[in-house]
Design goal:
Layout lengths: L7 H7 L1 H20 L4 H10 L4 H11 L4 H11 L3 H12 L8 H4 L5 H12 L6 H25 L8 H20 L7 H17 L2 H19 L1
Helix pairs in contact: 1-9, 2-3, 2-9, 2-10, 3-9, 4-5, 6-8, 8-10, 11-12
Length: 228
């Protein structure tokens, strides 16, 4: 008998918190893209193809500042290298018998927040299933695309009268991801998180945000292996 907790519909329902967080941020991105001179179709295409959350705002800054396309592309790749680790980490928690037949499809939607939600479900004893991953990923993706489209259509002046809202939107993605991680936090993980956090902050202040993220990832991974 199929476990109802692993169905596509359950995955879609589990995506609701992510969707609620994604929509206003994507709306803000659509508005920012309009301000930068992108057409609604171009703004939507960035979300459709790149789908990289905060990195899309960086892409706008790089492209509008005249940075070469190759430099912009490699910068975004460096910022998002952490996603390469999400699939293997998730499958390790899922177990060796978990199906990966359609991993090539659902892995596209494995963002920070989707990864956190999926990992939390496994930590709570839920069995891994690809239909659940499709529901989780498609819900989040659809919300991001819808928010981008509406923001781009609304135009660059949509948030000019609400500076507090505009400023707050930038914190929603990290806040959402932090909330998902806290839901599965245990005391044994605290030293690893402390090491990763300290290295990230130090390298960000000393070098750059991209270097901080990459260094924090590596330090956290090494600390996790040593602790095991």
């Amino acid at each position: 008998m199929t476990d109802p907790r692993t169905s596509f519909a359950t995955g879609l329902a589990a995506a609701l918190p992510i969707m609620m967080g994604y929509f206003p941020i994507a709306f803000s991105f659509g508005v920012a893209a309009s301000r930068a001179g992108f057409t609604p179709v171009e703004a939507f295409a960035l979300s459709l193809i790149i789908y990289a959350g905060a990195s899309q705002f960086l892409a706008l800054a790089l492209l509008t500042s005249g940075a070469p396309v190759l430099v912009s592309a490699f910068t975004l790749i460096a910022m998002n290298l952490r996603h390469v680790l999400y699939g293997p980490a998730l499958m390790k928690e899922a177990g060796e018998h978990a199906s990966t037949r359609y991993a090539w499809a659902w892995a596209f939607g494995l963002t920070d927040e989707v990864f956190g939600q999926a990992l939390g479900a496994l930590a709570r004893g839920q069995r891994f299933s690809e239909p659940y991953m499709f529901g989780l990923g498609i819900g989040a993706y659809a919300s991001w695309l819808a928010g981008t489209a509406l923001g781009a259509y609304a135009g660059g002046g949509a948030l000019e009268g609400y500076p507090a809202i505009s400023a707050g939107l930038g914190f929603m993605l990290p806040a959402l991801f932090l909330a998902l991680l806290l839901s599965i936090l245990t005391r044994a993980q605290l030293p690893v998180i402390a090491v990763a956090g300290a290295v990230t902050v130090a390298m960000t202040l000393a070098v750059s945000t991209t270097t901080g993220i990459l260094a924090g990832m590596i330090a956290g991974a090494v600390a996790g292996v040593i602790r095991r």
